[in-house]
Amino acid sequence: MRKLTVDNCPILINMPRFPSLQHLELRNCNQAMLSIANFTSLLTLAIERIPEIHSISGSFLAGNTFLTSLEIISCPKLILIPSELGSLTALKSLTIRWCEELMSLPQSLQNPNALESLEISECYSMASLADNGPASRFKFAADFIHRKLQ
């Protein structure tokens, strides 16, 4: 199997190992699914609409050295993206949308080797971005217009 979508399975907390899985989409599922560290061949990963998640397991990301695309969408309580994000040397595209509590990207993202596209949108608490070097390396989109007024 090369592609797996898990959608609207809130009590599913485990799944078998799929050694050739390249595309994984986790939508509206239990946050425990993000602690499974048995995916090592992923090229794309989409994490979407997991409302109770506060952080993503570093070991979940670290084992995915071939990952080229990561999307994190509609995780309103997400406050931490682990430093292991910087170890994803093949990552070309990173999209983070509607993560209202996320305040910054990890400092480990300072020297991305392959990153071509970084999109951050509707992350109202985002106060800083990691220093990613020359802006000319990125197609960068950021939306900070709707910051929460304090």
Question: Could you tell me the number of beta strands?
Answer: 7
And the CATH topology? Leucine-rich repeat, LRR (right-handed beta-alpha superhelix)
Arithmetic mean pLDDT:
81
Q: Report the C-alpha radius of gyration, rounded.
A: 15 Å
CATH class: Alpha Beta
- Domain module count: 1
Uncertain residue ranges: 131-150
The amount of helix comes to: under 10%
**What is the global morphology?**
globular
Task: Walk me through the structure.
The longest helix is centred in the middle third of the chain and has 5 residues, at 58-62. Strand 3 (44-48), helix 1 and strand 4 (69-73) form a beta-alpha-beta unit. 3% of the residues lie in helices and 25% in strands. The model is unreliable at 131-150 (pLDDT under 50). The chain has a seven-stranded parallel β-sheet, with no helix packed on it. The protein has one helix and seven strands. By secondary structure, the chain is mostly beta strands. It has a single domain (3-142), classed as Leucine-rich repeat, LRR (right-handed beta-alpha superhelix) (Alpha-Beta Horseshoe), CATH 3.80.10.
